[in-house]
Design a protein that fits this description.
The protein is mostly helical. Helix content is 71%, strand content 0%. The protein is built from 4 helices and no strands. The relative contact order is 0.08.
């Protein structure tokens, strides 16, 4: 009989959270810098953080999809992708100039 307090072991490690946290720390410390290499470095680090977060979300949704089975698994995968798209489009629309074709151009 197994013990109820045992930790569930998976083959995945949760190291993908390091990049977004590191990007936030770097942005907090050097975000107001006007130096071009610093700005490029912050943008590259932010891109790595966004991509690692997106792949982590998809990986978790894939694990849940395999555990829950066919009808619910497909819904979870679809919802995770839609939420990622909506969050990225919302972040894009919240910054910058108001462009009427921005929503259309980001979707197509």
């Amino acid at each position: 009989m197994t013990h109820a307090c045992e930790a569930v072991k998976t083959r995945h490690k949760e190291t993908s959270l390091i990049f977004p946290v590191l990007a936030l720390v770097v942005l907090f410390l050097w975000g107001s810098s006007q130096s071009l290499p610093v700005v490029i470095g912050i943008n590259i680090l932010a891109l790595i953080g966004i991509l690692s977060s997106a792949f982590s979300v998809v990986r978790h949704a894939d694990v849940l999809a395999h555990r829950l089975g066919e009808p619910y698994g497909s819904l979870i995968l679809s919802l995770s992708v839609v939420i990622l798209e909506v969050s990225l489009i919302s972040a894009l629309m919240a910054t910058g100039d108001a462009a009427p074709t921005l929503m259309r151009d980001t979707l197509y």
